[in-house]
Amino acid sequence: SYTIIDFLEKDQHFREKLHNTDMEDIKMGKLAKELDFVSHHVRTQLDELKRQEVSRLRTLIKAKQDIEGGNDMAVDHQALLKQFEYLNHMNPHTFEVEDLDRLIKSATNDLENYDKERHEEFKKYEMTKDHERREHLKTLDDEGRKKEEEHYEEMKKKHADHPKVNHPGSQNQFKEVWEEADGLDPEDFDPKTFFKLHDSNGDGFFDEQELEALFTKELEKIYDPTNEEDDMVEMEEERLRMREHVMNEVDTNKDRLVSLEEFLIATKKKEFLEPDSWETLEQNQAYTDEEMREFEEHLAQQEEDLNQKASDLQKQRDELERQQEQLNSQKVELQQVQSGEKKICIFKDVKNELYSKLLSLSVEGNAIPEPQGEYHPLPLGHQDMSQNHPGMKQDNHLQNQIPHNTQDLSQPRLQDLPPGHQAVP
């Protein structure tokens, strides 16, 4: 079966609130309202879970009665087994009385565990509430602490100031329901008629929900949702206590259902006619001092673990930031290398383009040698004199085409000299 923790882990509203609330706010009680809301939500889910368990239990009991009664009614055991998939190790083909007894016991144990779980969750709720109140007091100055303590005592006093609560399951309690809820004369109270009036589904049994509905009038004496001093979570715990008490007194075969016969027998007992006074929840503290001490030690350990986890996460974050800085530096270096390679590629492209242009502009028949190594273009105004160099081989074809009377081009002509200069012989 599910637990409170399972429901809280699946509750998106609670997870978001808890994630966005730091430890100091939790200590100050700022999350209390959200916890109250979730507690109500969880309780609603658990109530639905219990209704499913009761429905399962009633189906089993009805099938058992049909078999024991010899009604010769066919029992759809496959349909029954479908409700108990976690028990399908039982005989899947025939459904005997012994099988049903075992399943009923299993279902009853589930419901008992459910009630125990509810009591434990309520105990934690009360201890948490008291712990947060005391932690809040530590944050106040003397005057503020005094006012808060006075207000707390005043609320306790107001909550305890209520009409007398009848003993659950007593004649006085049922007569009050008979008169106020049913509108009947208390002098005409009849147990059998009362039972049939409140057996809402008419199956001949009071289940747990039908019993708990009988205590609403008593609970309204103690709890009012509009009052600051009244806690509705405590009201549901009080309802559970009342139901458990009546079941213990009336449910003699311990099947967690009250039959008409069991009810009528109980109305003849002294406890029904002359009951003891009923001690309400505020008269019975839900936890002991030792349990509170252990609970606070557990909270302190949880806080220490959370702080350690936060510290570890911060270290991991710092390390990730350091690694990110390294990656950024490496990225910059890579970009610089890529930029340099791009420049080299551009230079090679320019060199090749220049060489192509030189080829296209060369004198027809002249061969321009293939550049060897890196190409270094001549500065403007300079000529390649390698053809006239004494040590260079001349192109015979070009020499044959030069007229013999051509002037020595190595000597400047007079008209080429700047004004005022004369040629030196």
Automatic annotation (TrEMBL):
Compositionally biased intervals (Basic and acidic residues): 130-156, 312-324
Keywords tagged on the record: Calcium, Coiled coil, Cytoplasm, DNA-binding, Golgi apparatus, Guanine-nucleotide releasing factor, Membrane, Metal-binding, Phosphoprotein, Repeat, Secreted, Signal
InterPro entries: EF-hand-dom_pair (IPR011992), EF_Hand_1_Ca_BS (IPR018247), EF_hand_dom (IPR002048), NUCB1_N (IPR057576), Nucleobindin (IPR040250)
GO CC, alphabetical: endoplasmic reticulum-Golgi intermediate compartment; extracellular exosome; Golgi apparatus; membrane
One matching Pfam family: EF-hand_7
Main location: cytoplasm
UniProt key word DNA-binding: yes
Chloroplast keyword on record: no
Record's compositionally biased regions (Polar residues): 397-413
Cited SUPFAM superfamilies: EF-hand
GO molecular function: calcium ion binding; DNA binding; guanyl-nucleotide exchange factor activity
Domain EF-hand residue range list: 186-221, 238-273
Parts forming coiled coils: 97-124
Membrane-related topology note: Peripheral membrane protein
The family this protein is said to belong to: Belongs to the nucleobindin family.
Protein name: Nucleobindin 2a
Species whose genome carries this gene: Oncorhynchus mykiss (Rainbow trout)
